[in-house]
Amino acid sequence: xxxxxxxxxxxxxxxxxxxxxxxxxxxxxxxxxxxxxxxxxxxxxxxxxxxxxxxxxxxxxxxxxxxxxxxxxxxxxxxxxxxxxxxxxxxxxxxxxxxxxxxxxxxxxxxxxxxxxxxxxxxxxxxxxxxxxxxxxxxxxxxxxxxxxxxxxxxx
Length: 156
Hints:
Elements: E1 3-8, H1 15-24, E2 28-31, H2 32-38, H3 48-67, E3 72-75, H4 81-94, E4 97-104, H5 107-117, H6 130-138, E5 149-153
Parallel strand pairs: 1-3, 1-4, 2-3, 4-5
Helix pairs in contact: 3-4, 5-6
């Protein structure tokens, strides 16, 4: 039976690095960053209606992958409980189990990783200032105890 792994954490926490490992083992990786990039958006944020369509496409991709018997890794920040609940409900409706992994690292580690990526040009190199990252981390809705998440600390 397929397994869905939901990844949660702020930018620079190591979600995509982990997701790529699962992808190399055969899991289908779903990434909003890559969906936006593949849709032609490089520096500008797509309009909300386009983001909604891309997001719906990821949800459809999960259902199709599970139906085909593939494991799936959802490489999103899942920064809000309601979004995590939505993905868990989608997994339940498709009849598959899911696990929630929460990636963390000290802010300075996150910032060093994001800062290095700021000079790169690819889907997973979302440019961010230190103050914007701070706001993102400070506003992150970390999973509560009842969400049965496993924490992965990627501090080095």
